[in-house]
Write a structure and sequence with these properties.
The chain has a single domain, classed as 2-enoyl-CoA Hydratase, Chain A, domain 1 (Alpha-Beta Complex). The chain is α/β, with parallel strands linked by helices and 199 residues long. Strands 1, 2, 3, 4, 5, 6 and 7 form a 7-stranded mixed beta sheet that branches.
């Protein structure tokens, strides 16, 4: 009886793992924004996972105040952001405090997570890590694709990227790479070409 129960549990576990693996490998369309941002600190490294929200600047400020020894932020799986303005301010805070960012090996950053990553003074991307971009949308009716290229909203993004040491062309590339409901993952060559990596 116990062996049957064990086999049944093992089968369910393997089935769950395979279904999750299939979903993860094929989910290049759509961005599911779920999972509150979690922060864990080990020695001088803080590990971040989840979705960035409007409280990001407060969360990062608390992290820095409570852990002044932290020098590096490792982004494990950042699925995007609900508040792009807060994300840009969070990246600026990271830069102001001289912190480095890295994407964990086999980890990923999507959408606004890429912008947070760019805040690092030194930026590294682990082997097998994913960097996903797409055209932005405010979640209602404003979409990047619907705006005139001279619209001041574009200028805010362009200025942010220039401030982070990334060429303007990265912004226009990300708008063309995928619509707002899909994700384009950059190749390693593109990551270096767009100067996302400093190391």
């Amino acid at each position: 009886m116990n062996s049957r129960l064990f086999v049944a549990k093992l089968f369910i576990m393997l089935l769950t793992v395979s279904l999750v693996g299939c979903a993860a490998s094929s989910n290049r369309e759509g961005i599911e924004l779920s999972g509150e941002l979690s922060v864990e600190v080990t020695d001088d490294v803080a590990y971040l996972s989840g979705v960035l929200d409007s409280d990001l600047v407060d969360r990062l400020s608390d992290l820095i105040m409570e852990n002044p020894n932290v020098t590096d932020l490792v982004l494990v799986d950042i699925r995007g952001s609900f508040d792009q303005q807060a994300t840009m301010e969070g990246a600026r805070l990271i830069r102001r405090f001289g912190l480095n960012t890295q994407i964990a090996s086999t980890g990923f950053v999507l959408s606004g997570g890429v912008d947070l990553f760019l805040g690092g003074v030194e930026r590294a991307i682990g082997a097998g890590a994913g960097v996903g971009v797409h055209a932005w949308s405010d979640g209602t009716k404003i979409k990047a694709a619907n705006l005139d290229p001279m619209d001041p909203v574009h200028a805010a993004y362009v200025n942010f990227y220039l401030e982070m040491g990334v060429p303007e062309r990265f912004y226009w590339f990300s708008l063309e790479a995928a619509p707002e409901d899909r994700v384009y993952f950059l190749s390693p060559e593109e990551m270096y070409d767009y100067q996302l990596v400093t190391q």
